[in-house]
Each structure stands twice: as structure tokens, then as C-alpha cells.
Amino acid sequence: MEEKHNDTGVHVHEKKEEAHEHVKKEESHVHHQEKKPIKKITVWQTAAAVLGILLIISLFTGGFGIKSGPKETGTVLTIQDAANKAITYINTNLLQPGTTAKLVSSEEKNGLYNIKMDIGGRQFDSYLTKDGSLLFPSTVDLTQKVEPTAEATATESPPAVEKSDKPKVELFVMAYCPYGTQAEKGIIPVAELLGNKIDFSIKFVNYAMHGEKEVLENLNQYCIETEQATRYLPYLKCFLQASDGASCLTQAGIDKTKLKACTDKTDTTYKITENMKNPTGQYPAFLIYDAENKQYGVRGSPTLVINENQVSTSRSPAAFLAAICNAFNEPPAECGQTLDSANPSPGFGYTAGTATAAAAQCG
Length: 363
Hints:
Order of helices and strands: HHEHEEEEHEHEHHHHHHEEH
Number of strands: 9
Radius of gyration: 21 Å
Shape: globular
Oligomer: single chain
Distance between the termini: 9 Å
Helix content: 25-40%
CATH superfamily of the largest domain: Glutaredoxin
Number of domains: 2
CATH topology of the largest domain: Glutaredoxin
Largest sheet: 5 strands, antiparallel
Strand order of the largest sheet: 1-5-4-3-2
């Protein structure tokens, strides 16, 4: 992932274009070089993440470009060759190790190739252009009337978590990951609502996928959160609007002298600049929270940890509230509040999101 999603505020249209480019670029970065153990991850999460990524790309681009170079317009592949090309691309570029997409069946349908594939025991029905350059992971039959189902209208059940009197809530992100910023926008209303009734913190994945700007922003946010804590959420809310960290420092009233002293000291302690200039792998290491990353098996942004266990939930304020409140021995009155059930949009800006689940990650 390289760019930002910015959907509202100053320069709206320019930021939207950056957002679309960012989501497309994001999918070229799949795994960090260091293999870490997966903790409490399920097959359906992996499959849902892949489908979610593909759906986002298809929405923004009108289809999923399998080729990295120019399209082979006019070159018709056999149905078997086209299907194999799609399966190979997905297995090579999108799936985590240990999970494999397998072709179930293929046929020509409505001028396209219809392929059915199995990912982790779940079947997905997709379409390919005959030149094998575009994959459409989902289709809508415009001739069919859609009836609401119990599954579609049911309220999401909160995940089972360890309980405590004051839940410890840690959200691991990368500052410029569109799915991390999506989760931050979803969880901030919950953090504000519950206040000091939870032990809440934003932490960072132990590598940075989005270049120098992300490394420096992670560093700034770490110092603001640890040394100017009351100003951190106001700063973060501003930053999530349009990724303008410089103006947000002023808007949130950050003591810049104190911030500079902290970032200089932290840079030396954790070799932030040194690791950025001399990465040992594909991405520079960002080691402030390296111990926690390893302890919890964090593999991407965002990762939610409640009472030292990874928790999977959608990214709406309502879903986060339910998950966190389910971790109290005795939930406080605030847990009875009704919050927005729609997931925020990925990236920057506060445009309306969607009521559907979100599973995509940077990592």
C-alpha cells in the first residue's frame, strides 16, 4: 500500500483519486518477510479477506486486472487457461501461506468465463473476461428480486473474549494502511464513550509498508499518545480526515518541542531511521511494539487485541462496542448505547461506509 484514502474535507476530489489508487496499489503488498505464528485466525476470515480485497478492486476499477502489464485485448484464451491463470494469480499474490484456491468448475456464460473456486472450504462464484485479463469476483443478477433474509438482517454477535474488570484494548495498525484507518475511525467513538473504563491504546505493526511518511507518522503518533495522551485522539481524528499531520499538530494543540524531544529519543532507542534507511527485508522494521506483535501473533493492519487475545469483528462503532463490552465482568451503562452499525470507509475521510463486514488487511 502506498497512498491515502481521503473522501471528505479539503481537496475532496483529489483525495478520492488518491484513495482509489491506494487500494489498487495495496494489493501488490501481501506478506511481510518475517513469518509469524497465526493466533486465533480461522479459514473463513482468510477467505473473506480475499473476497473483500477483490470486491474493493472491482468496485473501484470495474474489474480485477490479473495482468501487471498491458491487457491482451483481442486474445481469447481457452476456458481452462483463463481459469488456471486466475487461480495461479490468487494463490501467488493474495492468499496467506497454508491457504490455497482450487478450481472447482468452469463454463462459458453470458459472454464470459464463469469459474467456481474453493478457498479454505468455501466456494466462490466469479467471472473472467475471455482474454484472462479481468476477474469479477462477484456478480448481481439484475433480473432477480432481492428478499431480506434472517442472516442479512441479524445483528452481529459479539465475539467471545476473556473478561476483566477493565478490559485492555489494543488496536495494531499502520498509519497509512486504509484498513487500519478504517478500524481507527470505527473504534474512536467507542474509546471516547468508554473513556477510562477501558485501557485503550493504538499500537503499530512491527514493519511499515508505506514508506518514510508512514514511519515518521507512526513515530509522531507514538510520542503524542505516550507523552501528550489527552491530545492524542483529537490529533488522530484530525489526521484521519485528510492525513495532514502538520496542520493537525497545531489544531490539536500538540507541544512540538516536547514532541521533537520524544521522537529524537525514540528514534535512537529503537533505530527507527536506521531501519528505514537500511531495511533487512522487503519493508523497514518498526520495532517500538515488536514484543507485543510477537506475543499476540500480529500479522497485519488492523489487528484488534482484547485482554491479550486477538479478536475478529467488523469495523463499525457498534461492532467494536459489542466486542469490548463483552470483555467486561460487569459491563458499564455506556455499553447500552447505540452506535453506528456501518463500517467506516477505508482510507482517509469520514464519508459513509457500509453495513457489511470488513476483513481486508495490510500485511
